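Recall that a protein's primary structure is simply its ordered list of amino acids. Everything else, from secondary elements to tertiary packing, is in principle encoded there. The following example makes that idea concrete.
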Amino acid sequence: MLNGPIKEPTSGNSPKQIIIFVHGYGADGNDLIGLANYFQSTLPEAIFLSPHAPEPCSMNPAGYQWFDLTSTDPAVLWNKILVAADHLNKFIDSKLLEYNITEENLALVGFSQGTMMSLHVSLRRKNSMAAVLGYSGKLIGADLLKNDLISKPSIYLIHGDQDPMVPYKETLTAEKTLKEHGIDIKTHISENTQHSIAEDGLRIGIDFLGTKFKI
């Protein structure tokens, strides 16, 4: 089972929402858990979980990866994504059960490879979660969505216009594809921003999640 740092609700009550941070390639759960400090004023009833990905990173052994990026074979890459998705789904299921919370009060917040994972998992779960907030990522397996799509969470994708790692056009391409599948998706491109989360993108993300929960 995945594990990583946790931020309890600032309300002092039992959690009413679960926000799961899904970190990027070569990082770990500690990389994103600090974002909880910014979200907590808007979501005081939420518990924030930031699990470490399941594998040591092949390019940075001090960090973790959801899936290996060293292979250029699409079939190999897809199989690795499926394995990672199984790990993340099991983590999600266990936490929903542990805190007695349903998907309507669950959101994923991804960065880079974590956004790729968040999109992959959220669109294929039996029950739709409240929201997906993704930074600096891309949609993988778009051509398979016709047969794979099960859930349609509300999605907001945010990207820096100077990103050298994952071009921001990947977010615009994802927006077009997901809209074609009837998904509620919005995007924002942060100016003069590289592979990171800019202040305007963070503010938009906080406001977005603040509107997506029933409690």
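The mean pLDDT is 96. The helical segments are 30-33, 36-39, 74-99, 113-122, 145-148, 169-180, 199-210.
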